[in-house]
């Protein structure tokens, strides 16, 4: 059994996953959702990788440079020792105005620590998802890999190590520092060890400065910062989009077919990420995301999708890469995501929640304010027309529409936040009309969502099935934590859906049968809910336990196996890390408030 023991590096244009042993096993260039360059993650034989091959007497350890997204893998046999420092360049440079340099590059800086280390390199790029053959040739300035058939693609490797030794996998004796620069583009300037070292230092300064701007907390500060750094890596600077995860088709359960491409921007996930990032002090991310929303919902009659491509694409046609075996032989491997066609009413409430936050916290430019106000009124119009209709729900049930309680709740949130925005900008003529709609939705949820027999708000109207999403009813302001119905819902949901300290999303059968792994964010939701209803000791114990299930670098995926506790699903998962931050902030803020008064 293997775990998702990977580190992630990136520069807000793309990202790479590097295994615990230092193998680069996932990289898409030039951007996150491009075709893969290395994909051993999804097929050990065909996917391609960039590995350091060492003798059995070497041991390896891995860590991040503190407060950065720079990953260090150390190899040592006691006498001979070297480090591979992996990063994607990202730093400010000055040329009249301040710009960010974030090229489609990965630099693997090899630093000699002691002795005379020896290793071999397995450099095996497989372009365009390895659908066609990749040819690799040594040229004068670089090693070039390219496709001869199908879609043309190419890749360049620059290094100060003898190129033939790299390509042939010959033994390399390290007597001085070395570098490998993988680039999607051919470089115009001559590359050198000095230039790579300078990029390393500049990138380190960038991440240290970014971390310094992140709000600090008395408790769990290290976990909050690492999660914030992950969320930053999953943001796409060019458009302001936020990805759900950096990967595709990592299975929710080994051997099953719940495999999806998460390299897209779900409005729900992204809005929740932006709300958290704003609370941590990173307002520019919110500004960029608001501009993304304004661009994708540019027309007043625009149908708002649940998700978009990171470059604002609206058609995310799904196809299967049948030549890939899949992670741990869990096929199919999908690219694209057909869920973009689904109707999910909850997106309106979560989007309105973050729009309200922007109005509340910041002075928005007149242009931005007017556009966001137009979107607010469009959302109210859409919700008023559709809230009574069934949908696919937060969990994206593909074959059945229902009246999901969470969807109704978020329709209520959409109208509630729209009313709050109207009050802030003194458009009181909308308040009375919208307040009636908000009250109507609230009464509907109370009447049809509450099940007297179960003594809980259930997954959908008329159902006895429970759902972890109802745990969020208090945090969205629909119900008070002291309300007996919420307390009862929390306890009933925990009893029904908790297993070995982890939570199911739900236990009723869906399109693919019974869910068999824990959806990570749901356990964080339970912890928050327990804390709010007064079960603080239990909540903290569950939180401490859950933190131990991260990988060796503190990273979480989408799912966790109930028995083995191995990480499953796409990785690293924005949803999981934003929930970790929210939960840790809940504990830490409470400590600070108690000490203040």
From TrEMBL:
It comes from the Bacteria. Residues 222-584 form the GH15-like domain. GO terms for biological process: carbohydrate metabolic process. Residues 8-143 form the Trehalase-like N-terminal domain. SUPFAM superfamilies: Six-hairpin glycosidases (SSF48208). One of its GO terms (molecular function) is hydrolase activity, hydrolyzing O-glycosyl compounds. This is Glucoamylase (Glucan-1,4-alpha-glucosidase), GH15 family.
């Amino acid at each position: 059994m293997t775990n998702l023991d990977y580190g992630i590096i990136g520069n807000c244009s793309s990202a790479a996953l590097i295994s615990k042993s230092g193998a680069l096993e996932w990289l898409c260039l030039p951007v996150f959702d491009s075709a893969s360059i290395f994909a051993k993650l999804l097929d050990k034989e065909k996917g391609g990788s960039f590995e350091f091959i060492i003798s059995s007497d070497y041991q390896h350890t891995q860590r991040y440079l503190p407060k950065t997204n720079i990953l260090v893998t150390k190899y040592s046999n006691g006498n001979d020792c070297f480090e591979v420092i992996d990063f994607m360049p990202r730093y400010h440079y000055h040329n009249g105005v301040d710009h960010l340099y974030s090229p489609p590059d990965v630099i693997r800086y090899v630093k000699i620590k002691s002795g005379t280390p020896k290793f071999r390199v397995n450099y095996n790029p497989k372009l365009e998802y390895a659908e066609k053959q990749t040819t690799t040739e040594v040229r004068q300035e670089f090693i070039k890999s390219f496709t001869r058939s199908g879609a043309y693609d190419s890749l360049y490797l620059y290094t100060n190590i003898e190129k033939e030794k790299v390509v042939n996998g010959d033994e390399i004796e390290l007597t001085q520092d070395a570098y490998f620069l993988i680039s999607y583009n051919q470089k115009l300037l001559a590359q050198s060890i000095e230039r790579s070292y300078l990029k390393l230092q500049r990138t380190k300064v960038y991440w240290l400065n970014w971390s310094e701007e992140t709000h600090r907390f008395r408790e769990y500060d290290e976990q909050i910062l690492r999660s914030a750094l992950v969320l930053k890596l999953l943001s796409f600077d060019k458009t302001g989009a936020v990805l759900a995860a950096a990967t595709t088709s990592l299975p929710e359960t080994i051997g099953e077919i719940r495999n999806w491409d998460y390299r897209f921007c779900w409005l729900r996930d992204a809005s929740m990420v932006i709300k958290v990032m704003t609370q941590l002090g990173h307002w520019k991310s919110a500004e960029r995301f608001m501009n993304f929303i304004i661009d994708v919902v540019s027309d007043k009659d625009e149908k708002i999708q649940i998700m978009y491509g990171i470059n604002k694409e609206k058609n995310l046609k799904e196809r299967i890469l049948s030549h890939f075996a899949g992670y741990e032989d869990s096929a199919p491997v999908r690219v694209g995501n057909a869920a973009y066609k689904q109707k999910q009413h909850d997106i309106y409430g979560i989007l309105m929640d973050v729009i309200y936050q922007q109005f509340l916290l910041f002075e928005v430019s007149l242009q931005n304010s007017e556009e966001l106000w137009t979107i607010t009124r469009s959302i109210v119009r859409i919700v008023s027309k559709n809230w009574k209709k069934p949908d696919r729900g937060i969990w994206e049930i593909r074959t059945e529409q229902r009246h999901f309680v969470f969807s109704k709740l978020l329709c209520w949130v959409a109208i509630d936040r729209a009313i709050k925005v109207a009050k802030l900008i003194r458009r009181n003529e909308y308040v009375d009309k919208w307040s009636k709609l908000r009250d109507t939705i609230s009464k509907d949820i109370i009447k049809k969502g509450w099940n007297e027999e179960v003594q809980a708000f259930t997954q959908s109207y008329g159902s006895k099935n429970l759902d972890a999403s109802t745990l969020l009813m208090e945090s969205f302001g629909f119900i008070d934590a002291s309300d007996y119905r919420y307390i009862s819902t929390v306890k009933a949901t925990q009893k029904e859906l908790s297993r070995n300290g982890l939570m199911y999303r739900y236990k009723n059968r869906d399109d693919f049968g019974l869910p068999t792994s824990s959806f990570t964010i749901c356990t964080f939701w339970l912890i928050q809910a327990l804390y709010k209803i007064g079960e603080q000791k239990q909540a903290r114990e569950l939180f401490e336990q859950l933190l131990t299930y991260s990988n060796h670098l503190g990273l979480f995926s989408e799912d966790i196996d109930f028995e083995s506790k191995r990480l499953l699903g796409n990785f690293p998962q924005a949803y999981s890390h934003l929930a970790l931050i929210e939960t840790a902030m809940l504990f830490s803020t409470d400590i600070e408030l108690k000490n203040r008064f």
